[in-house]
Amino acid sequence: MTDFPSHDLDSAPEGSKPLLENGQKAFGRLPGLHKVMAESPQLLEGYQVLHRLFTETAFDAEEKTVVWQTINVEHECHYCVPAHTGIAKMMKVDDAITQALRDETPLPTAKLEALRTFTLRMLRGRGHVNEAEMQAFFDAGYDHRAVLDVILGLAQKVMSNYTNHVAETPLDAPVQPLAWERRGAPLAV
Q: How far apart are alpha carbons 123 and 113 in whole angstroms?
């Protein structure tokens, strides 16, 4: 792979400097993903805006984690699975949920499992879900807004997962103990 620049506050393009400062304030350090995205101020800003908007959805911390990690695992993102494992810990999400997402094993509730299944079907179907799949999601307690919020989560994660794939972003030191790789076949839904 071509070496992608990894910027700091001094080397970043002018348009990225305030965005990197935002990331440093939010995380207490500069995440490697932000350092790589800084090469394109527009990508970094878009990612940060989508991240903020997704955190403002009606999903609770567990549901946000399910959407994020379902996409990260499906995309086999070596960087985002550990990063969101750490984020889930900060959000006080039960470790059993995080482990089930990482291992692609059953989640503890039918509602969370329905969210994972729907997110996977949206992702794998590139937005095409059939009436029965949509109804199963609604029957699990979700609504039209939740459908659209899953799409928002997908947009955000495509930006980060794809960036990490092409840039081979190194894991940040705090999440290195949470490293991940898929151990079996993708989850069947």
A: 15
